[in-house]
Amino acid sequence: MKNNKYTVGIVDDESICITNIRHSVDEFPELLIVGTAPTPDAAIKLILDEQPDLLFLDVEMPGKTGLELLSDLRERITWPMQVVFHTAYQKYLLDALRVSAFDYLLKPYESDEFQLVMDRFFKEMIKAQPYNYFHETLAQLLPINESFMVATSIGYQKLGLKQIGYFQYQKDKKQWDAVLTDHNHLQLKRTTIANDVLNYSDSFIQINQHQIINVDYLSTIEDKSCYLLPPFTRKPLEISRTYMKGLHDRFELF
Question: Which domains does the chain have, with CATH numbers?
Answer without folding.
Answer: 6-127 (3.40.50.2300), 142-250 (2.40.50.1020)
